[in-house]
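[Meeting: bench + compute handoff]

Bench side (C.D.) handed over the final construct sequence. Compute side (W.E.) agreed to return the predicted structure before the next meeting so the bench team could plan truncations. Sequence as handed over:
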Amino acid sequence: MTKIYPDATSALNGVLTNDMLIAAGGFGLCGLPERLLDAIRDSGVTGLTFASNNAGIDNEGIGKLLRTRQVKKMISSYVGENKEFERQYLSGELEVEFCPQGTLAERMRAGGAGIPGFYTRTGVGTEVAKGKEHKQFTDRDGVMQTYILEEGIFADLAIIKAWKADETGNLVFRKTARNFNLPAATCGRICVAEVEEVVPAGALDPDQIHLAGVFVNRIVPGAPYDKKIEFRTVREREVV
């Protein structure tokens, strides 16, 4: 049975439901599953929880779904570039669970490995630690330290963006897009990968594959893409 679907809507057919927990890859505007996010918006599902490093910016990335009020909760690290996110959070319309970047990536990785929880020092003594179990362990230097328990993320659906895929679902990510897309892919019960190029099975160098096809259920070609820039900064021209 082929894993390749003609478009994002068909790739998500039978998968989307209200009140899902979705793990989404991407970092800023880099490595976003744009076509899949558009298809989720157009489907009309609501009450969604997203585990994602950030929510894009206004009208880009998950920001599109914030505009349509389809997102109930965000589990995120960085939320500073999205005014609608800020407005909904401050008005109490959006629930937000702040999570340090490294901890979020590890929570996804843990979920993908079947690990329900782990202890970390990150966040101890901050708002992040409130309500979480605290426990003391001896660190590598023999010093007793306090750690907090963080739970692995087990998502109903993972949506990710890759550079290349072969027909069996083996994926190669490009540069920065590798960081959150890879752990997000592993923690979803179903993983749908949006890719720039699909090549025949055997065309990828096995040593260059970042994610094995066993983790990928469906593939959708998404090219062509426009390169979006969060902040465009230019130098003033020197007067000669």
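W.E. noted at the follow-up: Residues 8-116+152-221 form a domain with the Glutaconate Coenzyme A-transferase fold (CATH 3.40.1080.10). C.D. will use this when planning the next construct.
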